[in-house]
Amino acid sequence: MKAMRGLFSWSLEAGHETTNPCEGVKVVSFATEGFAVWTDDDVAAYRARWPLGTHQRVAFEVLYETGLRRGDAVRVGRAHVRDGVIRLQTEKTSARVAIAISETLIEALEAGPVGDLTFIVGAHGKPLVKESFTNMFRECSLAAGVNKSPHGVRAAAASRRAGRLQRRGTVSEVPLVEP
User: Fold this and answer.
1) Could you give the CA distance from residue 122 to residue 3 in angstroms, rounded to a whole number?
2) Over the stretch 39-67, which tens digit does the pLDDT of each residue have?
3) Which pLDDT does position 178 carry in this prediction?
4) Could you give the CA distance from residue 44 to residue 40 in angstroms, rounded to a whole number?
5) Per-residue pLDDT reduced to its tens digit, 105-123
6) Residue 64: HSE in the Cβ half-sphere, 13 Å Cα cutoff
7) In this structure, are residues 36 and 149 in contact, taking their beta carbons and an 8 Å threshold?
């Protein structure tokens, strides 16, 4: 409906149409429960199935240790790292982020395999687009017995970070860059 509204608005402005059939049509929204958050057991199962030294493990650790969206996770690489901090402008919101590289992520990246341009690569060592990455990650998750999405890993990373912040006290006491 959103695309059709845009199309007919353009068509009206360009003089191709005299009416917009989408005018007044209500969009039906569906309530969902959102993405299932990965649990500690899910994380352990994935890590057990995909040990260090596999591109599946690198992909997981980049997601879990950074909390990046899949589109940013597939773009991040050595060029984004300076002084142990990943710095990049996010794809979706254009926000600039700085994320300290954790020991766990360092270990995964050192074990590899990683690409020349990006940390996350496919089976043939080539960078992935976010859609291909999602398909690959889903297959790897299912092989580990976890039927959840990459976005659920992002949610788990956010929950983990929130727990660390809560244990430390107020947000103002926490440095901007944190593992």
Assistant:
1) 33
2) 999 999 999 999 999 999 999 999 999 99
3) 45
4) 6
5) 999 999 999 999 999 998 8
6) 22
7) yes
Structure tokens at 131: 């859609």
Q: How far apart are CA 133 and CA 122, in angstroms?
A: 8
User: What pLDDT, on a 0 to 100 scale, did the predictor assign at position 174?
Assistant: 42
Cα separations in angstroms, 91 against 28, 52, 70, 71, 172 = 28, 28, 10, 7, 27
What stretches of the chain show up as alpha helix (H) in DSSP? Answer: 2-13, 40-49, 55-66, 70-73, 103-111, 130-143, 150-168
Domain ranges of the chain: 1-31, 40-173
CA distances in angstroms from 148 to 80, 108, 117, 144, listed in the order given: 28, 21, 27, 11
DSSP secondary structure of 5-53: HHHHHHHHHTTS-S--TTTTPPPPP-----PPPPPHHHHHHHHHHS-TT
The domain defined by 40-173 folds into hpI Integrase; Chain A (1.10.443)
Instruction: Give me the helix-helix angle, 55-66 and 150-168, nearest 10°.
Output: 40
C-alpha to C-alpha distance for 172 and 38, rounded to whole angstroms? 28
